[in-house]
Amino acid sequence: MKPTSFPLIVLPALLAAAMPAGAALIYSTGHADLAVGYEDGAFDFHFHAEGGTIDGVDVDDQEYEAGEIITLVSTAAMVTLASDFPALDAGPGQTVWVLPETENFQLPFLGLATDELSASQWGNITFTVGEVNSPSGTGHFALWQTGSFGDIILHMSTADASANNFFETPADTHSHHNYGFSEPGNWEIELTVSGTHVTDGFKTASETFTFQVVPEPSSALLAAMGALMFLRRRR
Known about the structure:
Elements: H1 5-14, E1 25-39, E2 42-54, E3 57-64, E4 69-73, E5 78-80, E6 95-99, E7 108-113, E8 125-133, E9 141-146, E10 152-157, E11 166-169, E12 174-176, E13 178-181, E14 185-197, E15 201-213, H2 219-234
């Protein structure tokens, strides 16, 4: 059995009790976007599955309200730092969780999309981070891209004052980023999208997106996994 097969099957069930109430759908792998549309004179800032796995089912071209989805950041996202990383206020030997800007089939591949907006009707579109609620209240979130020479292009950080805390992109584009989290647990991240329409003027909308960052399994959880696998073998 592949090393990742078991967690992908078992984690959603074992972690159900830890998930925030009222959010029923878990996005665990595959491609999706935090996407911006424009309907009836207002931005529609939503979650768009384009091959993403939602509650264990591969979903293509389906839109959801921001509050309907939990993005699962599994143990496959764990990174042990070799050097200081000010964007998450973390240093060598510390563990952080990163959803990467390049596709990893064990993790969500989450983009920022403005391709529902016509470039002839819009100038640049700006994504700005607002309130960030971390599990401990003192955790840090960051959004960045990696340059051609491996340099960090930091867009958002709750820890690093050098970050502008926004990402600006043209309409009718699509981009991927690294989403970093300093600790496990439930995160709520508010993002605001804004831009100016050629005839309708300035528009803005804000939504809160939920991420569930999974810790390294404890000995108790590993024992439960082992017991479950033993029972499956007995059947």
